[in-house]
Design brief:
Layout lengths: L29 H8 L17 E7 L4 H6 L5 H5 L4 H4 L4 E2 L6 H10 L3 H4 L5 E3 L6 E3 L9 H4 L5 H7 L3 E6 L7 H6 L4 E4 L3 H13 L4 E7 L1 H9 L4 H18 L6 E6 L5 E2 L7 E3 L4 H4 L2 E7 L2 E6 L4 H12 L3 E5 H6 L9 H4 L5 E5 L4 E3 L5 H4 L3 E2 L5 H4 E2 L2 E4 L1
Parallel strand pairs: 1-7, 1-8, 5-6, 5-7, 10-15
Antiparallel strand pairs: 2-17, 3-4, 8-18, 9-16, 11-12, 12-14, 13-14
Helix pairs in contact: 10-12, 11-12
Length: about 400
C-alpha cells in the first residue's frame, strides 16, 4: 500500500480575500451619496442605487451585520421586513471596509473616506511618530485629533452648505476624540435612552428643509462581545433595537429617507485552543515582533527593524491556512484599505497584516485580557463581519 505523501500547508491566496466595495458600495460612500442628493458642493453620488431625499437620517446600530438580521426574523421582525429595501431596493448589503471595526467604520461613515485616507486603520495601530500603539477607539495614548485625522467630516461640510445637521447619541460621546474626528459638525444632542434618541432624531429631521441627522445605538455590539450572538442577552438587545427602528420610522417627517445600517457584523468564536491562538504564549509568532496591534481577527504585526520578511514567512507558515497573511504593501496593493493610502497612514499599517478566514482569532492573554475574553468578535473580511445593511424607509 502506498504511503501518504506529506505536503506542506498551502497558504490562502490573497486573491481569494473579498475586497470591500470602496467607491460604490461601502460605508464610506453613504454620506457623500446622501449629501450629493442635497446639492452639497464637492460631492457625487457614489452609491448609484440610492435616490435623493431632502431629509436624510442615518441610524447606525453598532455590531448588527447583514447576516445577523437575516438569521433572526423572530427577534427583529421590523428590520427583517426591510431587507428587500436595502441599498436602494436591490436587497443587497454594503461592505464595512477593512478592518470591520467600530473606530475604522465610524471614521469612514463620518468623513466619507476609506481607511487608507482617514487614517484609522484598526482598533489599535502604531503611531510612527512615537512608536507606540494607539488605541483609536479609546484614544490612548493621547494624540492630537486634527493631526491624526485632518480631513473635514461630511457633517461639517453639509452644515457649512446650509443643511440642518445633527448627531443624536449618548451624552458620553459628545467630547470624545473619535466623535471629533469622525462625526462632528452641526449640533450634538445627547440623550440617554434609545427612545429619546429616536424621538429627537425625528424632530431634528423635521427642523430643516434640508436635513442630515445621525443617531447611534451601541448595546447590540456590547452584548455580542460579552455574551456572543447566540445568547439571550444579545437577542434581547436585538428585539429592543428593532422596536427603536420602528419607532423612528413611524415618526419620519415628509420628504425623508431613513437609512438603517451598522459598522460591522459579528462572529462567535469557541473558547478552545484551536480557535483562540494566544500570541503571548506562542514563541514562534512572537519572534521578531515588536508590537502586536489591531484585534483578534484583524491583526497589525509590527516587526523589529530588519525582521519583517522573516515575520511574514513565519506567520504565513503557521497561520496561512486560516488567515489571509499579507505584507503591508501586499495589503495596500490588494485594496484592503481603499484605493489609496496617504503617506501619513502608511506606517500605521502593520509590516504584516493578518485577516481571519476561518472561525479563529489571535488573542493576547497577557497584554489584552479584556479583548481576549470576548465571546463575539469582528474585524476581518468575511461576509459575516463585512456585510452591513442599508435598510430604507421613506415618507
Amino acid at each position: 500500500m502506498a504511503q501518504p505523501v506529506w505536503q506542506d500547508p498551502v497558504p490562502l491566496s490573497l486573491d481569494t480575500a473579498p475586497v470591500p466595495e470602496y467607491g460604490s458600495g461601502s460605508l464610506a460612500d453613504l454620506l457623500p451619496t446622501l449629501v450629493a442628493g442635497q446639492e452639497v458642493p464637492g460631492f457625487t453620488a457614489a452609491i448609484p442605487e440610492l435616490s435623493p431625499a431632502d431629509r436624510n437620517c442615518v441610524f447606525l446600530i453598532d455590531g448588527l451585520g447583514w447576516e445577523q438580521i437575516i438569521a433572526h426574523p423572530d427577534e427583529a421582525p421590523f428590520l427583517h421586513s426591510l431587507l428587500p429595501t436595502s441599498r436602494g431596493g436591490t436587497g443587497r448589503p454594503l461592505t464595512a471596509g477593512f478592518p470591520s471595526t467600530t473606530a475604522t467604520s465610524l471614521a469612514s461613515v463620518g468623513t466619507g473616506l476609506p481607511p487608507g485616507e482617514h487614517g484609522l486603520p484598526g482598533y489599535t495601530a502604531r503611531n510612527p511618530e512615537t512608536g507606540e500603539l494607539m488605541n483609536q477607539l479609546r484614544w490612548r495614548p493621547w494624540t492630537s485629533p486634527k493631526v491624526w485625522q485632518p480631513y473635514p467630516t461630511v457633517f461639517q461640510l453639509a452644515d457649512a452648505a446650509g443643511v440642518h445637521t445633527a448627531q443624536v447619541s449618548a451624552p458620553t460621546f459628545e467630547q470624545t476624540p473619535l466623535t471629533k474626528v469622525a462625526l462632528s459638525g452641526g449640533s450634538f444632542l445627547g440623550r440617554l435612552s434609545g427612545e429619546e434618541r429616536m424621538d429627537v432624531a425625528a424632530q431634528r429631521l423635521a427642523a430643516g428643509d434640508r436635513s442630515l441627522v445621525y443617531t447611534y445605538y451601541s448595546e447590540v455590539d456590547g452584548k455580542g462581545h460579552r455574551f456572543g450572538t447566540d445568547s439571550d442577552a444579545w437577542r434581547g438587545q436585538l428585539m429592543y433595537v428593532d422596536g427603536l427602528a420602528r419607532r423612528l420610522a413611524e415618526q419620519l417627517p415628509p420628504r425623508s429617507a431613513l437609512y438603517i445600517t451598522a459598522d460591522h457584523g459579528m462572529i462567535d468564536i469557541p473558547f478552545d485552543e484551536q480557535s483562540r491562538i494566544d500570541f503571548d504564549e506562542d514563541w514562534e509568532l512572537r519572534a521578531g515582533v515588536a508590537l502586536l496591534g489591531g484585534e483578534g481577527r484583524a491583526r497589525h504585526v509590527y516587526a523589529v527593524p530588519g525582521a519583517h520578511a522573516d515575520v511574514l514567512a513565519v506567520w504565513r507558515e503557521v497561520l496561512g491556512e486560516q488567515f489571509w497573511i499579507a505584507s503591508r504593501d501586499e495589503a495596500i496593493a490588494a485594496g484592503w484599505f481603499g484605493p489609496t493610502v496617504d503617506e501619513r497612514v502608511y506606517g500605521r499599517i502593520g509590516d504584516v497584516v493578518a485577516a481571519a478566514h476561518d472561525d479563529v482569532i489571535i488573542t493576547a492573554s497577557v497584554n489584552e485580557p479584556h479583548e481576549s475574553a470576548m465571546a463575539g468578535v469582528h474585524g476581518s473580511l468575511t461576509p459575516v463581519e463585512q456585510l452591513v445593511p442599508l435598510l430604507e424607509v421613506r415618507s
